[in-house]
Automatic annotation (TrEMBL):
Gene3D superfamilies: 2.40.50.90. This is Uncharacterized protein. It comes from the Bacteria. InterPro entries: SNase_OB-fold_sf (IPR035437).
Length: 127
């Protein structure tokens, strides 16, 4: 009978080789420029018009142009505007609270966002 450690060692070696191959392929893909955010603006700056806890329009030039650039925060999840949550058997308006919090953080301030990808009519961005 063959020792079991030999079989486990071979499986581990195959797994490591597969991981290295994937890492090399990903590195080559990103280095080629196809994995980067091509065609995106470097930054979007202006005042924020808030829609919910993660979505807003960036209004440029002091609001002269009413249609701003739609931004949805990258890697952030929040309740929808009219959504409620239940805490200790009490409903509370988590969507309104998230929207109010984002409004308070951006009110009378300029926001600066770095778009990461195009989504719908706007961008996912880090701000």
């Amino acid at each position: 009978m063959k020792p079991r450690t030999n079989i486990i060692g071979r499986r581990a070696l195959r797994l490591r080789l597969m991981i290295y191959t994937i890492e090399i392929a990903a590195s080559l893909f990103l280095a080629s420029g196809r994995g980067t955010a091509q065609g995106l603006p470097e930054t979007v700056r202006g005042e924020a018009q808030i829609y919910d806890g993660v979505t807003f329009d960036v209004i440029q030039d002091g609001g002269r142009y009413r249609n701003g650039t739609r931004i949805r925060l990258e890697a952030v999840d929040s309740c929808e505007l009219r959504q409620k949550a239940r805490l200790a058997n009490v409903d509370w308006p988590c969507g309104a609270v998230a929207t109010a919090w984002l409004t308070s953080r951006t009110l009378v301030k300029q926001v600066e966002c770095r778009p990461t990808r195009v989504v719908g009519g706007g961008y996912r961005a880090q701000c």
